[in-house]
Amino acid sequence: MTVLVVGGGLSGLSTAMFMALHGAPPLLVERHPTTSLHPKARGQFPHVMEALRVAGVDEQVRSASTDGQFRITRAVSLNGPVLQEIMAESPDFSALSQAPWADVSQERMEPILADRARQLGADLRFGTELVSFEQHDRGVTAVIRNLETEEEETVEVDYMVAADGHRSPIRHALGIELIGRGVLGEGTGTLFEADLEQKQFLCYLLNPDLPGGAGVLVSTDVPGRYAVGVSNTDGPKDWVRIIRTATGIPDLEPKVLDLRHGSSQTRHGVAERFSDNRIFLVGDAARMMPPTGAFGGNTAIMDGFGIAWKLAMVTRGEAGPGLLASHDPERRPYSKILADQQFLLFTQRSRPDLANDPTLPEPVSPVSALFFGYRQLGGAVITEPGDPGDLLEDPERPTGRPGVRAPYVRLANGSTTDLLGRGFVLLTGNPAYQDTALPIEVHVIDEPEFFTRYGISPEGAALVRPDFVIAWRSVGAASPAELERAWRTVLDLRA
Ligand SMILES: Cc1cc2nc3c(=O)[nH]c(=O)nc-3n(C[C@H](O)[C@H](O)[C@H](O)COP(=O)(O)OP(=O)(O)OC[C@H]3O[C@@H](n4cnc5c(N)ncnc54)[C@H](O)[C@@H]3O)c2cc1C
After folding, report:
1. In this structure, which topology does domain 3-65+103-179+266-354 adopt according to CATH?
2. Could you give the CA distance from residue 492 to residue 495 in angstroms, rounded to a whole number?
3. Which residue out of 87, 174, 186, 284 has the highest number of ligand 1 atoms within 8 Å of its CB and is therefore the one to mutate?
4. Coil, helix or strand at residue 195
5. 91-131: per-residue pLDDT in tens?
6. Tens digits of per-residue pLDDT, 210-255?
7. Rounded distance from Cα 163 to ligand 1 centre (Å)
8. Do the Cβ atoms of 47 and 302 come closer than 8 Å?
């Protein structure tokens, strides 16, 4: 076994699933006996659905998804008055992706990821925790414990992935700090069942009759089941009263479920580094952001998508270890942008008292840039001379520059996105590249829109990584040697 993934939430399970997909199934340990019993994060963005499609689970996710529109409001109670209509429908990204939005909670998503990871050969051990670890020159020695039998085992691995959530014992042990605005609030909540008129909604509550004066009420993907959360003020909670206040239905008789999610923290902070020698941070271990915006769960999955191919290629001997050094510079600046944007939404939706903070970031515009226009510029990409290094671009006007997600172009048979995900792919109008001896899939495309959106001539080419990021581009014709040099540089392979 060459990689140990610690944590079986969205980030750990997707790391394991995508690693297994790339032919390097890891060992994963999760201290809980099962996947999450709480709905927690819900909603999958189109770019996440594209990644899930690569693993062959998108159809399953779609069938598990609730249908219909998801309404987001800020209100005194679900029954009103509504203070702000935040979103009645998901933004239309159909010009940027053929993938749909989906609406599946963590409770249903995790088993889908776990089943697929197992099917592809990953060794998932629930009810097993990481007890201690030590890094050395050749790898990581980790002690894991089966919590049922109390048996301990020492495993030797090349690399370890810290997918161990917001408390991240691994991050603490490594002495890695979260940099940001810190703790913004403590919350507590419960699930309940009731017959409410509105079916799919997220309602940010501002109501002096709630503990702390604020809360959140959200539907789950189980019909008739809802989650309510309020500030974690002192004293026991009268959940029936809280639910009546939150729904605005004074005589509601909710069935409060014995599945509290305990206390949770709203926090803004990004780890000061995403790796420490042979250990890599993903998901909430790497960043904490207010849940406003739903990037937490989605980014946890995309962290797995982003690091899995690198770990797989390095451990399979197909890339040099330097490839892994790109994890921090590629994921950390993006995390900072996301955490700041979610903080901005948090001030607008839940904490208007912070809305005049002069240090608030500007909203990213267009918002599609956060999903499709981010550039990863960290070593596993060959930037072009004169590239100003901007981290976001408008995906409606793509440049095709290295570091950006490969722009979506509809083709006569499908789209460019259909061609990506399993390995390195060269998209080009030039059939001469088909003779390459490199392990790269070459697709010759003869569509003017493709050349425009990738910023290349018909003789040019774009080399796309398994995570859809353009690693290198040649605007005009390039020699086979130039392509090979680029490929070797990206993969940290000696000539
Ligand atoms: C109530 C609630 C509602 C939320 N709602 C949303 C939402 O609507 N949208 C959104 O985007 N995000 C939401 N989030 C945040 C979202 O759930 C997280 O961003 C996401 O789960 C992060 O996934 P993760 O895999 O990094 O961490 P987690 O899902 O926390 O998984 C980490 C796992 O590591 C395990 N672990 C820790 N230490 C060890 C150890 N030593 N050995 C073995 N296992 C260990 C833990 O048991 C845990 O299962 C919500 C969170 C909560 C709590």
Report:
1. FAD/NAD(P)-binding domain (3.50.50)
2. 9
3. 284
4. coil
5. 899 999 999 999 999 999 999 999 999 999 999 999 999 99
6. 998 989 999 998 889 999 999 887 777 899 999 999 999 999 999 9
7. 9
8. yes
